[in-house]
Amino acid sequence: MAFAQNKTVTGTVRDAKTKNPIPYATVAVVGAPASAGTTTSTNANGEYKLVFPTSYVKIRASYIGYDSKDAFVTNDATQTKEILMDQQDNMLEEVVVKAKKKKYSNKDNPAVALIRKVIENKEKNRLSGQQYAEFDQYEKMSLGLSNLSEKFVNKKIFKNYQFLFETDDSAKTANKYVLPAFIEEKMSKVYYRKDPSKTKQYIIGDQRAQFDPRFIDNDGLTAYFNKLYEQVDIYDNNISLVTNQFLSPIANSAPTFYKFYITDTIKTVQPWLVELSFFPRNKADMLFKGQLYVTLDGNYAVQGASMTVADDINLNFVRDLQIQLKFEKDSKSRFYLKTSTLGIDFSLTEKGMGIRGSRTVDYNNYKVGIQQPDSTYDGPSTVIAYNVENKKATKSLFETQRPLALAQNELNIYHNIDTLQKIPSFRSFMDIAALLLSGYKQAGPVEIGPVNTFYSFNPVEGFRLRVGGRTTESLSKRFYAETYAAYGFKDQKWKYFFSGTYAFNNKSVYSFPMHYIRASYKKDTKIPGQKLEFIQEDNFLLSFKRGDNDRYIYETNYGLEYKKEFLNHLAIGAAFNINRQTPAGSLTYQMVDANNESRLFNELNSTEVSVNFRYAPHEEFYQGKIYRTPIFNQYPIFTFNYTAGIKGLAKGEYNYHNFNVGAFKRFYLSQFGYADVTAEGNYIAGKEIPFPFLTIHRANQTYAYQLNSYNLMNFLEFVSDHNASINVQYYMNGFLLNKIPLIKKLKLREVFSFKGVYGGLRKENNPDDPNYGSKVFTWQHNADGTQSSYTFGSEPYMEASIGLSNIFKILRVDYVKRLNYLDHVDAPAWGIRARVKFDF
């Protein structure tokens, strides 16, 4: 009798696009009878093993949501075969509709009953269910350009850059390339304590492919990528991804928003698993679709998860998104997260060039119940626990202790980025890109700019030309100088600014944490009541204004400022300022005595000392050339400022005390979007104080929607010495519009706002008071004698808006309605305002 010789085939089943392993896929020998060895399932890592007769030459992998994939094998006794499977779009929905032929219902649905068990037990299955826990954590993030055509790669301009391009194995069509461009790795030891709650991360190694810091803020780039590729905790009710929040499939309210189906029972592992497939009830909501693997051991823990998002979701620039989570048992048979992989492909178009990235977090040496000394948990949540200057030791750490091996193309990124920055043409490209994006042009040890202020115009100065610049780290890492000169062709006056800054920490004065002292001199114009953020007052686009806007101040200021930031994002500051103001345009400094005789003042002097505090726990931002761009999260920001005016010091003419407190908080509302809320209070102590030293409320007479200004308030319209305000910006993220046929195809998003401020003037600072009115400056009047500035009456100033954002993916347009004080001169009842808002 002849016995058939067997062969052994091992390998991994992976997603063709993301290269992520597919757990619990079925792998079978084509044509063989169902017997031991001819059919198997992949394990949690997507690995399989088959032993079968050499007479069979083909195996087939199958999995829900994927096209079956065949692979031919040889007659070698042992061999390895990787199988790449392509996803099917919306396959699950079609199968369910045809098979069930009845309306979906949560009632008497075993899948819903099971998911409710998962929800009921999730607190004991997650990290926060442990009293103490500790583990090793390894993070890897890589990004690069994707879907590059052969024609693009072979362009003459890339002749010297061919070493960067690689064949795109995940592309469904041939002749596609990728350009790996960024990688960062981090190794940490993490300690968790439940009560009082604290997670402490000690970073023992961190390395990345760095770009020239003159062009790119590498730390800010990392923070921004971390925000896009956040760590995924399936046990959280809401999962943050690409600056949005998605409802978890095991959130408390998940059965209301998701449909669940039991699609398989896996008995090849212990404990047995149930495969739960889920997808959104509404395809346009911020929800996932995919599979959960739930243990049947009475704990109802998640053993694995594979998730993506529906094509109809209102999510900008995301061509593909894949999440893979794998859990392993600890010594107490509790499942903990072993590996989390998030892959996202960003692109402006479906078939064009994009940016593909992935973040993998691997956890090892998981231990529970070990209580560490209190000192282990004290202090900031994240600590750098290695010598950042010792690059050699850091490199050796990753080479010897990296738990997940890097692919060759990932290893190449470190070398390629270093090589790239030595090519003159690339440095020229970065120089031009920095000019376009930041407005500054490199010129050796200095930068010239910002270019958007070179030309502007206003009613007082007419055409205004300005040129300026500043030194860089290449000149000195401790001393920085900045200057500009401007000339107005109508008033025929020169304006100047100069500052010198000394950094105590031998770091750039623009990088975190700041620690510097700065001396400055400024002679320029100013609009009373205009307070801008992230933009200069003489920006060309702000030259276009509505209504009467010719009340200006010529200001001369001598300033001395100290600032220090701490690693916990507490910032303290102090300043000393000598200020001289001269009215310009139609602005007047005028007093009228009891005999109705007026007296004009051409100069106003003040000397101020101030201290300020700002606390922004866990703050994230991107540091640009001029401003920090915030990357908002769920943590609040608190501010406190105190300014004292000192009479008799350096020609100061008034005594006063100005107290200001503020708080900002972003509230995430899951499927209903999010709201940014700012509250502020101000009190000025002192008497007979002229209005330039009181609170001139933030007004906006441009056609741009300004978040922190009153968009239908006129400059210098409201003045107070005590006030409180609220500002609410509510972004509903298309929750309503996505449910309207046809309209939802535009992927517009609703946005609402409300702003209100209320306060007043005490009698000793009020021009209308019969006893004190002759001792302070009068209200402003128009050319026809009509009063144009006021304090508050019996109600707060209020305005509200309703708008559409995500127009062409970048534009927000609001209809703004002013709700009261419409009897004020030139008060607009409504207006249309626009704002560029880039968001995912």
Automatic annotation (TrEMBL):
UniProt keyword terms in alphabetical order: Carboxypeptidase, Hydrolase, Protease
Hydrolase is among the record's keywords: yes
One Pfam family matching this protein: DUF5686
GO terms of molecular function: carboxypeptidase activity
Record InterPro entries: CarboxyPept-like_regulatory, DUF5686
Organism domain of life: Bacteria
Gene3D superfamilies for this protein: Carboxypeptidase-like, regulatory domain
Protein name per its UniProtKB record: Carboxypeptidase-like regulatory domain-containing protein
